Amino acid sequence: MIRARKTALIAVSVLWAGLFVFAQQPADMAGIWSGEATLTGMDEPNIMTLKLELKEGKLAGHMTDQFGAVDADLKDIVLEGGIFNFTVPLMLPQGGEGRILFKMKLAGEAMNGEIEIPEMSATGTWEATKQK
Q1: Neighbours of 122 (CB within 10 A)
Q2: What is the bridge-based pairing of β-strands 46-55 and 31-39?
Q3: How many degrees, rounded to 5, is the angle at CA 63 between CA 59 and CA 106?
């Protein structure tokens, strides 16, 4: 009985470890992701689209938005433990260039998390799904 429990516990541990490693595979993230970004205090969400691909074994991407403020390649990409962080340049409403910092959590075909635009002292969220 104790041996069966130990075997079951080991099997579950291996399964969870396998899912954890699987969730981090950059190849699984390649594709087009789209969803609404909402800044705190703003009425209208912004539809943002992210195209991810593998380049020389590493994730690379390009993001656009419905208003034309974002049309740039991703920078500072980090994928670790189901967390996907990156930065994307944007054109600020008053002119000049800023950046959006993304801190996303991955869950299969969805990601969601926090965004921050330091130059505007703005924060918000982005929820995206992988397009079929």
Answers
A1: 15
A2: antiparallel
A3: 55
Of residues 118, 51, 114, the one with CA closest to residue 89 = 118
Q: Give the type of residue at 56.
A: E
Decide: residue 2, CB within 10 A, 0-12 exposed, 13-18 middle, 19+ buried. exposed
Place of tokens 């992210």: 50
Per-residue pLDDT in tens (0 to 9) along the chain, 132 residues:
666 555 544 544 444 444 443 444 777 899 999 999 999 998 899 999 999 999 998 999 999 999 999 999 999 999 998 999 999 999 998 889 999 999 999 998 999 999 999 999 999 999 999 997
Dist CA 46 CA 7 (whole Å)? 50
Domains and CATH numbers, the chain: 26-130 (2.40.128.120)
